[in-house]
Task: inverse folding
């Protein structure tokens, strides 16, 4: 059986944050994937090779890249055979990461030994600069993992490590703001004041990355009132900030936004305030496809 | 003599904003360039062909693109001759914008008439898809402008149209936050609490785009104290918001940032809070090169 080997971004891996980060990421993966999951040598190993897992992993914040890997014992003979089975034709190279420093061979040794073995067995050439196949070999504490394809995820931090926010969700810009906050590790509770299909579909999209709660206030209120209600919900949810999708000048100038935010007890975070359709990757969110959302009717 | 024809972004050109936008942009250009400047048919015309002007125009927020253009009277014979002089060899096409609807020929007419004239005079071919030279012809109210090269500026809005903010300037991220706010039309007053050479050089870079005022507080204070002092300066400067370069998680988590911003009377804008070194164009500011900064020693 093959396993999924998951690598996370190194951004928050300093000191005591590391273990919080790893624990939270495993918790978030377990929410989406029903399989045996464990840590090994700074990676997360998912003991399952169901292809659907790949689709989920692509969307979970905190995952930098992952791979569906062959497993070998910490034995160079077995590693050689497994590596050989991964190369079919064309050019290749071996790229070893030895996280387990007790393993008796260095990464350079392993590259050389495995490379020579494959060269002797197959009519194939080494190309270090631009190979058709790269065999990645990861020597971890318990086992060795081998794969040829890295699949990149959305990156960022696991949802929940940075705290909780209330986002005013109304359309594309606020959905993007919510998504960016999720990728910075925020747990997101969304509030909407109109209940259009659009909003439900954005909430669904967001929930593909991490579960979100959506409060729907079934009446039209002023922007000032929205800020007030968002603060009420924040108290209830123990959230520490309000997030808006406001953009200058479409949402107003500095003075009008400043007046509006002044009504908030909690600080208002403005992650997309300087976004410019022309220059910024607003479509970053569009790339991400959908699942189940918890919808609560909130009567104010 | 040739002139510079300046095109601005269309983002804020709806309704009453348009004239404010244009007035401010002309005012900002006049600060950097000593030449006769006027509006014509939704463009700004600078009656000077000094190459140095180009370097300044590239950096002024609100300018989408500009060109050093030949001037012709609103006379098709003169337009034909001027267009001919702009094409040397290879393939070409003509692209006409007729902003002056009183001109008797349509854009398509002009493309055809001028194109045929050049074909008869020179051994050269038309290529509509991928020409080596494109002759842009702009039929404006008073004159016609012809050029072959569009030079792109930083885009955005003219500084000053959106209001005034205080930015806490300490390094690259806060400089980027300041720059992005400038591009959204903010007048920026920067405050620094350490007076490193770095900060002065960032302030100089920013001032290439638009003049900024820099307050230097010659003592080290806590972040809480920084927020308090920034608010004091905001009152004095009649600014409507505080801008920070905080990024999650490097600058703290949501709760700690929320606590910090709660100390501010004015809302705190966070344009780079979700920026991720890997994915976002943090080097967007780095592209921009420098001038004079007004430095005020502020003794708290």
Result:
């Amino acid at each position: 059986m093959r396993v999924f080997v998951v690598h996370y971004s190194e951004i928050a891996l300093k000191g005591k944050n590391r273990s919080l980060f790893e624990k939270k990421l495993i918790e978030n993966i377990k929410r989406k994937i029903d399989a045996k999951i464990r840590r090994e040598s700074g990676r997360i190993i998912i003991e399952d090779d169901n292809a659907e897992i790949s689709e989920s992993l692509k969307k979970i914040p905190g995952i930098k890249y992952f791979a569906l890997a062959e497993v070998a014992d910490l034995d160079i003979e077995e590693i050689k055979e497994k590596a050989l089975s991964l190369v079919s034709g064309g050019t290749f190279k071996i790229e070893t990461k030895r996280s387990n420093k007790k393993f008796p061979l260095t990464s350079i040794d392993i590259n050389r030994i495995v490379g020579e073995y494959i060269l002797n067995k197959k009519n194939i050439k080494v190309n270090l600069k631009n190979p058709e196949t790269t065999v990645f070999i990861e020597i971890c504490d318990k086992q060795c993992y081998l794969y040829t394809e890295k699949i990149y995820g959305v990156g960022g931090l696991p949802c929940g490590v940075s705290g909780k926010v209330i986002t005013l969700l109304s359309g594309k810009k606020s959905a993007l703001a919510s998504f960016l906050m999720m990728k910075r590790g925020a747990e997101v509770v969304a509030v909407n004041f109109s209940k259009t299909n659009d909003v439900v579909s954005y909430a669904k999209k967001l929930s593909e990355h991490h579960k979100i709660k959506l409060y729907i206030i079934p009446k039209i209120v002023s922007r000032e009132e929205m800020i007030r209600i968002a603060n009420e919900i924040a108290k209830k949810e123990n959230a520490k900030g309000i997030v808006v999708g406001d953009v200058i000048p479409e949402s107003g100038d500095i003075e009008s936004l400043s007046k509006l935010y002044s009504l908030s007890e909690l600080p208002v975070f403005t992650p997309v305030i300087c976004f410019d359709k022309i220059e910024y990757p607003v479509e970053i969110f569009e790339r991400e496809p959908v699942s189940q959302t918890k919808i609560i009717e909130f009567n104010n």
Helices of chain B lie at 17-32, 51-57, 76-86, 107-121, 172-183, 197-209, 223-237, 254-262. The CA atoms of residues 66 and 151 of chain B lie 5 Å apart. Chain B is about 35% helix and 25% strand.
